[in-house]
Amino acid sequence: MLLVMFGAFIGSFGAVFLKSGAAHLRKGWQYLVISQEAPYFNWRLASGVVLFLVSSYFFVLGIRPPGELSVLYPMVSLGYIFTLLWSRIFFKEPLTRVKFFGLFLIVAGVFFVGLGSK
Amino acid sequence: MSVAVTDSTQISEKPARRQQVGLVFCCTILGAAAQILMKTGANHMANGGVLGMATNLPLMGGYCLYGISTLLLVLALKDGELSLLYPVIALTYVWVTVLSFLIFHDDVNPWKLLGIVLIVSGVAVLGKGGRR
Question: Helix, strand or coil for residue A32?
């Protein structure tokens, strides 16, 4: 459980780096680490991917038997809440009621899917 | 050489958001397939060693699919809002629940169905009116 929660926390930062890297793609070649032809390799995107890999390593450790794939979901949905927070802090994205409502429905949904999996 | 990123999120229109949510939608289908493969791989795994993971074919296939789905996510995030698009990834749970039923024969009960309905409506809410 804790492993998966930690994985979700790391993964939410992975999303932050992906977003930040993706936003820089539009600015052109000066942010690319490797080459102009492979625009996906800037360090922000690379960090995001590495963080996702690290987080999925923890997921895999968490879902090894006797862990069950679906019971661990509620922990992962914490990642969405973290990410909402980081979106606000790092990208100054507006947090609208609609977003909170949608997120609430999704987190509740993930909770029930987890509940139904016991 | 300005470092400032233009705030495209303010000017993008509804059709653009549809497209972004659609991209993330595809990304969740790939992600679900990736998770099923990773679960299959995890079932065959004796210990948590990195070498054991690297030689585990289903697990690595899962990572590849994750990679492709991440590329789609990056494309969507390029012009989209993280706070709007990231929760849409929860659709993965919907596909995984369905696929788990089909492949691992996990049971489906009212709680899971309720969860699926809630997730889908949450995504619908975000897709339709994520902006002020």
Answer: strand
Cα distance between residue B114 and residue B5, in whole Å: 40
Q: What angle do CA A100, B66, A110 make, to 5 degrees?
A: 35
Per DSSP, B6 falls in state: P
Prediction ipTM score: 0.73
- Tokens standing for residue B75: 């494309």
The pLDDT tens digits for A46-85 are: 888 888 888 878 877 877 777 666 657 777 778 888 888 8
Hey, is the C-beta of A73 within 8 angstroms of any chain B C-beta?
yes
Q: Helix, strand, or coil here: B103?
A: helix
pTM: 0.74
Residue with the two structure tokens 């994205």: A93
B64 membership: H or E segment, kind and range: helix B57-79
Q: Which residue bears the tokens 């949904």? A: A109
Asked if A25 and B78 come within 8 Å (Cβ–Cβ), the reply is: yes
pLDDT above 60 for B13: no
| Token pair recorded at residue A89 | 């802090």
List of chain A residues whose C-beta atoms are within 8 Å of the C-beta of residue B49 = none
State the average pLDDT for chain A: 76
